[in-house]
């Protein structure tokens, strides 16, 4: 695979390698890397879903590696740690992609990107909710097959949406929900009560309580040691028949198997954008659960999010090369 490298003749500069990316990210990434002129060389590959051995080969002699869409753990980290001094993760939930305990011990800096997709993911959350509530995509497919019967819909006005997590994305979802005349419940272990009040959201004491009193439940927690598996079968059993469950955050927030077991009861609908294994295996039981919408981890993928993410990646690299700090994961 061919690559593009800036300032290739400046071999005295640190080498940044972006070994894989979505092709649609190339333009915003390339534009943002202009701030690294006379600071670092940047080598960019534009293909995606490559093997770990290919990542190792492409990152040979790299000082800084940008991590987009692959995991840095085990053998891969061992291979790269002899020369890589900084990983910049193109996302927020870095703990799911980079072994932070090992990078700390190795003295390798890790940076992430924050709040780049708040609006994008919040908007996508409502795209999923609307598909569950009105079935626009399903009716499009149906009418093309010659069926004019249509589907009955559900109005969002006066419905209660429960948000598990209330950071930038959760708060943006709350603002949108308020515009639709919805009521908002929030569970978050660190939420500020004043922030909740300002968005006309009501705090609840437990995840189970939130699920029991919500028509729609949407997850917006980051994945870390505290939140992994935080949602249990007991919590999901509190979901009311006819309610909707949305996950655009991380699959690992839910205890393994708990969501499938709840969906197989057949009395709720779900829209899922994130999975324990990605791409989703052909034999994954989620593929056969009725009343479930599945999308391929795309909630964050939109033009504005790409631009903001790219700018933050470039700023993290610039700061590292100049002995400064930006978006450093402690």
Structure commentary:
The longest helix is centred in the C-terminal third of the chain and has 19 residues. With 330 residues, this protein is α/β, with parallel strands linked by helices. Strand 8, helix 8 and strand 9 form a beta-alpha-beta unit. It folds into 2 domains: 132 residues, Rossmann fold, CATH 3.40.50; 177 residues, Rossmann fold (3-Layer(aba) Sandwich), CATH 3.40.50.720. Helix content is 32%, strand content 15%. It has a 7-stranded parallel sheet with strand order 9-8-7-10-11-12-13. It is built from 12 helices and 13 strands. The model has no long low-confidence stretch (mean pLDDT 95).
Oligomer classification: single chain
Number of helices: 12
Placed side by side, the strands forming the largest sheet appear as: 9-8-7-10-11-12-13
State the low-pLDDT regions, or none. Answer: none
CATH architecture type of the largest domain? 3-Layer(aba) Sandwich
Q: What portion of residues belong to β-strands? A: 5-15%
The CATH superfamily name of the largest domain is: NAD(P)-binding Rossmann-like Domain
Radius of gyration from CA coordinates: 21 Å
Order of helices and strands: EEHEHEHEHEHHEHEHEHEHEHEEH
How widely separated are the two ends? 35 Å
Q: What's the pLDDT, averaged over the residues? A: 95
Q: What is the count of structural domains?
A: 2
Based on secondary structure, the structural category is alpha/beta
**Fraction of residues in helices?**
25-40%
Regarding CATH, which class of the largest domain?
Answer: Alpha Beta
Task: Please outline the major beta sheet.
Answer: 7 strands, parallel
Shape: globular
Total strand count, please? 13
CATH fold naming of the largest domain: Rossmann fold
């Amino acid at each position: 695979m061919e690559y593009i490298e800036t300032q290739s003749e400046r071999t005295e500069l640190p080498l940044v390698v972006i070994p894989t990316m979505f092709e649609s990210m190339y333009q915003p990434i390339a534009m943002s890397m202009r701030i690294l002129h006379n600071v670092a060389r940047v080598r960019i590959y534009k293909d995606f879903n490559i093997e770990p051995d290919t990542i190792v080969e492409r990152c040979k002699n790299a000082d800084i590696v940008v991590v987009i869409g692959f995991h840095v753990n085990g053998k891969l980290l061992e291979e790269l740690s002899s020369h890589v001094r900084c990983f910049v993760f193109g996302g927020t939930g870095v703990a799911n992609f980079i072994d932070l305990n090992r990078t700390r011990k190795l003295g390798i800096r890790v940076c992430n990107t924050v709040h780049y997709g708040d609006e994008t993911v919040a908007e996508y959350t409502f795209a999923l909710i609307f598909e569950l509530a009105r079935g626009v995509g399903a009716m499009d497919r149906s009418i093309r097959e010659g069926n004019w019967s249509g589907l009955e819909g559900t109005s969002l006005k006066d419905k209660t949406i429960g948000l598990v997590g209330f950071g930038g994305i959760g708060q943006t979802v709350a603002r949108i929900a308020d515009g639709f005349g919805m009521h908002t419940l929030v569970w978050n272990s660190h939420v500020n009560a004043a922030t909740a009040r300002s968005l006309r959201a009501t705090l609840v004491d437990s995840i189970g309580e939130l699920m029991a009193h919500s028509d729609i439940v949407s997850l917006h927690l980051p994945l870390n040691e505290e939140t992994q598996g935080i949602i249990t079968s007991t919590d999901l059993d509190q979901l009311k028949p006819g309610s909707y469950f949305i996950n655009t955050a991380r699959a690992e927030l839910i205890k393994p198997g708990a969501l499938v077991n709840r969906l197989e009861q057949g009395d709720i609908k779900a829209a899922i954008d994130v999975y324990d294994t990605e791409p989703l295996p052909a034999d994954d039981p989620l593929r056969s659960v009725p009343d479930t919408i599945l999308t391929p981890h795309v909630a964050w993928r939109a033009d504005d999010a790409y631009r903001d993410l790219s700018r933050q990646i470039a700023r993290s690299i610039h700061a590292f090369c100049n002995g400064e700090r930006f978006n450093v994961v402690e």
